């Protein structure tokens, strides 16, 4: 894992000092709110519905155990005992007071963390596949590339006041677990004729105008990555629209200009930027690749797991649902679900964070990941340690066997916290999860991605949910639109709106009708909801939602 | 014809804590929506807004929110403002917890 250099350490400490002084000047009246707001946002501090919110960066979702432990301390000492993991693989605290935030930032700096560039019109946290470095289908660990991008983009002077925010994801696997195609820019590690390089996609994104990213270059050598990214972002920074914030994202620039024109402009810029990069970035990348070397995997006999699974059905179910194959034969990657039925998706208490940190030390080589699906991952666990790990997780309510199932819902904070939201998300997610548990249908339904957003900004990724739910304000009442057929993987698709929205208390029954229709209409248990929707089209599902008369209501 | 003015309360977030505050008739800032000044006159509402904007050391982002008079004082009309009078749905946090502990 990456360890801060002396430069990083000094840089973050200096920012903490600066922000402490800025907070003091806001409190003593030397700074107005208009002057202070951009400064606090540069340090991840929002003012939400009920309190300040601090968004903390977790670069590419990777945490050391001591960092997770420190987040638990912050949850207990400065917040209300919990934190919320987000779809950008970050964490948010919902209740800090203004005067405490400098102390929180110092506590983060103590474990090499910060909140820089978690807000604002700049390059945000670069996200990656949460199984990076462990997945059987990856070409290489994508995190050194993500760390290189982090170092390049942090406080990059040209990219601090762009038309809008800019989100990058990096993948390296045949199966896309990082939602690459719905990012402003996606970097995909590929192999061409034995040489590793990158395919680059641009112009994806969700929000009010959802779009799938397009390939701008099929292959660039590794040495060209940063100059090429710089050319893309620089081009957009110059020609991106600033007249209308809703049209300021790169997806609109790509749409309005066309991918061919965009490619031409980027190539022109690339010819200039290429010359500015001396090759030092490749020395940095080589060093990062060494730092991200896998741990010394233990050589424990895995057969005890098979024995334990044979006699413990709860363990068997959890292993089947919450583990992923590992590139090292006697290991697995473990998904710790933060989606206990009826609980807030993505929340963990201080105690749970400390426990996960301890378990990472005991069984996972001290490493944790945050997934964009708001779960925690132990990327490397020896099969022999799985039964003991399961026992410890179960004691803390962290062994819910629902990874990838109906109750494993992505939900944004919604109007329970967010100042931008127009309806609630969390209670809808909680109620759907409780209902499917009551019906005991989750295992039968199998792979299901439900995603819920509380406003058009789509932080809950509803457009790419197999079932997407968008909460809106309709004449002063919460109303929920349903989309179907969305997909965030390599076969990415934007979900189609079904028709008129549903009242708050009608959403769960509507989802239940969709699930039951799928079970009735599918070819076999192997046909997923998404596959069935693609085969059958929207009609049977619209009928389930609205009845025959209204199925063409969209 | 002049449009009808919907009564309001003046609300903001507290600078130090970030929590929801309301301007009372005596010019103080209170945490309870029912203790907010019920503003039925548009001109007075605008004047109160100027007062609030002049207190950046207390109030952040002041705005006028629609309200109606209830049995115990002003009540919110829109569900967003109703949420702001209590706390989140998923935890017993915020004003709902503070009220219970009093």
Automatic annotation (TrEMBL), chain A:
Indicate whether Oxidoreductase appears among the record's keywords: yes
**Which Enzyme Commission number(s) are on file for it?**
1.8.7.1
Endpoints of the signal sequence = none
Q: Where is the Nitrite/sulphite reductase 4Fe-4S domain positioned along the sequence?
A: 119-272, 448-545
Residues forming the Nitrite/Sulfite reductase ferredoxin-like domain are 52-110, 344-395
A Pfam family for this UniProt protein?
Answer: NIR_SIR_ferr
Q: Which GO terms describe its molecular function?
A: sulfite reductase (ferredoxin) activity
Q: Which UniProt keywords apply?
A: 4Fe-4S, Heme, Iron, Iron-sulfur, Metal-binding, Oxidoreductase
The protein's name is: Nitrite/sulfite reductase
What is the species of this protein?
Answer: Thioclava kandeliae
Automatic annotation (TrEMBL), chain B:
The record's InterPro entries line, in alphabetical order, gives: DUF2849 (IPR021270)
What Pfam families would the database entry show? DUF2849
The entry's protein name is DUF2849 domain-containing protein
């Amino acid at each position: 894992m990456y360890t801060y250099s002396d430069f990083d350490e000094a840089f973050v400490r200096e920012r903490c000092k600066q922000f402490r002084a800025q907070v003091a000047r806001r409190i003593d009246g030397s700074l107005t709110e208009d002057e202070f707001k951009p400064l606090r946002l540069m340090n991840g501090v929002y003012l939400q519905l009920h309190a300040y919110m601090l968004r903390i960066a977790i670069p590419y979702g990777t945490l050391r155990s001591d960092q997770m432990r420190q987040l638990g301390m912050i949850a207990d000492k400065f917040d209300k005992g919990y934190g919320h993991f987000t779809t950008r693989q970050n964490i948010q605290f919902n209740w800090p007071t203004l005067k405490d935030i400098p102390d929180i930032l110092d506590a983060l700096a103590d474990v090499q963390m910060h909140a820089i560039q978690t807000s604002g019109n700049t390059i945000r946290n670069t996200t990656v596949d949460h199984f990076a470095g462990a997945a059987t289908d990856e070409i290489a660990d994508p995190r050194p590339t993500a760390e290189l991008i982090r170092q390049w983009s942090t406080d990059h002077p040209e990219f601090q006041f762009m038309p809008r925010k800019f989100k990058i994801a990096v993948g390296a696997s045949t199966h896309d677990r990082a939602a690459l195609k719905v990012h402003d820019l996606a970097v995909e590690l590929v192999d061409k004729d034995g040489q590793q390089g990158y395919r680059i996609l641009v112009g994806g994104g969700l929000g009010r105008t959802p779009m799938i990213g397009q390939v701008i270059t099929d292959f660039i050598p590794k040495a060209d990555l940063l100059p090429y990214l710089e050319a893309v972002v620089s081009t957009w920074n110059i020609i991106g629209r600033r007249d209308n914030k809703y049209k300021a994202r790169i997806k609109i620039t790509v749409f309005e200009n066309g991918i061919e024109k965009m490619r031409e402009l980027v190539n022109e810029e690339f010819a200039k930027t290429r010359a500015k990069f001396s090759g030092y970035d490749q020395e940095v990348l080589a060093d990062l690749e060494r730092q991200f070397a896998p741990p010394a995997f233990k050589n424990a006999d895995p057969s005890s797991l098979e024995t334990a699974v044979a006699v413990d059905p709860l363990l068997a179910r959890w292993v089947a649902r919450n583990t992923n194959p590992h590139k090292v034969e006697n290991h697995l990657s473990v998904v710790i679900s933060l989606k206990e039925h009826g609980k807030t998706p993505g929340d963990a208490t201080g105690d749970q964070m400390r426990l996960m940190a301890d378990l990472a030390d005991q069984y996972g080589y001290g490493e944790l990941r945050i997934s964009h699906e708001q779960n925690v991952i132990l990327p490397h666990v020896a099969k022999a340690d799985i039964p003991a790990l399961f026992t410890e997780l179960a004691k803390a309510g962290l062994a819910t066997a629902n990874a990838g199932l109906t109750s494993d819902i992505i939900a944004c904070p919604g109007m329970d916290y967010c100042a931008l939201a127009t309806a609630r998300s969390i209670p809808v997610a909680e109620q759907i999860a409780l209902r499917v548990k009551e019906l005991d249908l989750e295992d039968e339904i199998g792979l299901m991605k439900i995603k819920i957003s509380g406003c058009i900004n789509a932080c809950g990724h509803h457009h790419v949910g197999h079932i997407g739910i968008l909460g809106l304000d309709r004449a002063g009442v919460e109303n929920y639109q349903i989309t179907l057929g969305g997909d965030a993987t390599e076969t990415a698709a934007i979900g189609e709106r079904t028709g008129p929205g549903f009242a708050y208390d009608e959403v769960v029954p509507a989802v239940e009708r969709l699930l039951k229709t799928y079970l009735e209409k599918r070819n076999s248990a192997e046909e997923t909801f998404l596959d069935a929707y693609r085969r059958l089209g929207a009609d049977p599902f619209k009928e389930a939602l609205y009845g025959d008369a209204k199925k063409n209501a969209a | 014809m002049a449009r009808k003015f919907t009564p309001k309360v003046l609300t903001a977030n507290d600078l130090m804590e970030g929590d929801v505050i309301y301007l009372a008739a005596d010019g103080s800032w209170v945490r309870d929506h029912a203790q907010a000044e019920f503003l039925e006159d548009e001109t007075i509402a605008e004047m109160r807004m100027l007062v609030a904007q002049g207190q950046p050391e207390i109030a952040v982002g002041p705005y006028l929110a629609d309200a109606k008079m209830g049995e115990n004082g002003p009540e919110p009309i829109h569900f967003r403002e109703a949420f702001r009078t209590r706390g989140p749905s998923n935890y017993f946090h915020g004003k709902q917890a503070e009220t219970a502990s009093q």
